[in-house]
Amino acid sequence: MAKLYFYYSAMNAGKSTTLLQSSFNYRERGMNTMLFTAAIDDRFGESVIASRLGLKEDAHIFDTNLDLFVKITNQLNETPLHCVLVDEAQFLSKGQVFQLASVADRLGIPVLCYGLRTDFQANLFEGSQWLLAIADELHELKTICKCGAKATMNMRVDEKGDAVREGASIEIGGNDRYIALCRKHFHEKLRGPQL
């Protein structure tokens, strides 16, 4: 039986690198993959999944209006598919998470989703919330805080490196806007210098 997987982490844990490696492994064995990334994240160009290591691959883009089940079914009618991989899965809608579950359940194609668990205010993203709720398997990809402990939080920072406490949940950025921290240092940085 095919499964829906969710690989989650804080920023800079190698999610895109892991996704691209998984796709390569399938294709190296003569199997076809279908890759998706969020339309909202065009830092590396439209419809491109790129890693900080320099790996990149063309992908289909999704926004909240795309029916992923229909898109994947249409592709399956043209060519066999052995795996669907989704980058920036935190930006999926609830409906799209259930569509991907249907791809696994009804079409028998494994679906591997990669994304952040929470935003800079420690709130779950919609896609992550529903993947955590219904995915068959959950896997945390680990990265480290400046102290060496496991980083689980995403801190948004301004141009001086100070914590940003307010703003929209979604603001696209990389190392210039976000740092991965352990919970202790996340809260310390939010509180500011103590008296």
From TrEMBL:
Protein name stated in the entry: Thymidine kinase
Keyword Cytoplasm: yes
EC number: 2.7.1.21
Highest taxon of the lineage: Bacteria
Major localization class: cytoplasm
Residues that coordinate or bind Zn(2+): 145, 147, 182, 185
Reactions mediated catalytically: thymidine + ATP = dTMP + ADP + H(+)
Broad enzyme group: transferase
GO molecular function annotation: ATP binding; thymidine kinase activity; zinc ion binding
Encoding gene (name): tdk
GO terms of biological process kind: DNA biosynthetic process; thymidine metabolic process
